[in-house]
Amino acid sequence: MGELFTFFGLISHNHIFIYATHMLLAAGIVLFLAKTATKSLRIVPTGTQNVMEAYLGGVLAMGADVMGKEEARKYLPLVATIGLFVAVANVIGVIPGFEAPSAFLDFTLALAIVVFVYYNYEGIRRNGVITYFKHFLGPVWWLYWLMFPIEIVSHISRIISLSFRLFGNVKGDDMFLMVILMLAPWLLPLIPFALLSFMALLQAFIFMMLTYVYLGGAVLMSEEH
């Protein structure tokens, strides 16, 4: 089975070039949407502003279910930006002639590391180094020696979980789409296109939800939470 055809591939078949150009395209689309939505803000939103406000409201509501509205609002810029970036990066791959940047492990691994570093930083900043890492020891003192390495491995494995889940799903969708286009290149792919578009948005939702969950677990460590 050959490689996916891409318009950028006509310039160069280099792996890094294909990845970088599609990633920059996704970033450019996100910046364009943000610029368009904020270009002429109105009290009664219309067009792109209306869509973006609905999106932000949905992300905030999702975060409020995980860590409360006040805390979710603090991390809304990060989570919403990641979600929009991942969604656009995924959807690009559904369009013939383009490849999803998230089908490259470089992309998903970088995002996973950003989330991992940030939620640990926030946990330490909000709770202090001792309190934060004491949380890794568990509730029973005589199991500290066992729980601490387990928690460390568990947190590090989140990088693998976040990156490989997104990479594997999007890469599988790309391969599925390639097979469909080879077997039935005209009318029949319309149904798979709709399904793959839904899956692209679903993967972005999962990434956002897990980001909120990890942030909530890191910053909300007191008994009342």
Task: Please characterize this protein's 3D structure.
The chain has one domain. The mean pLDDT is 87. The protein is mainly alpha-helical and 225 residues long. The chain contains 8 helices and no strands. Helix 2 (47-67) packs across helix 8, helix 4 packs antiparallel against helix 8 and helix 5 (105-127) runs antiparallel to helix 7 (144-183).
The arrangement of helices and strands along the chain is: HHHHHHHH
The domain count comes to 1
Average of per-residue pLDDT values: 87
Note the overall shape: globular
Helicity range: over 70%
Main sheet, how many strands, which sense, barrel? Answer: none
> Which structural category do the helix and sheet elements fall into?
mainly alpha
Cα end-to-end separation:
52 Å
Counting DSSP H or I runs of 4 or more residues, the number of helices is 8
Could you list the spans in which at least 5 consecutive residues all have pLDDT below 50? none
Strand residue content = under 5%
Instruction: Please report the total strand number as a whole number.
Output: 0
* Rg estimate, integer Å: 20 Å
Provide the fold topology.
Layout: H1 15-38, H2 47-67, H3 69-74, H4 76-92, H5 105-127, H6 129-134, H7 144-183, H8 190-219
Which terms would index this structure?
globular, 225 residues, 8 helices, mainly alpha
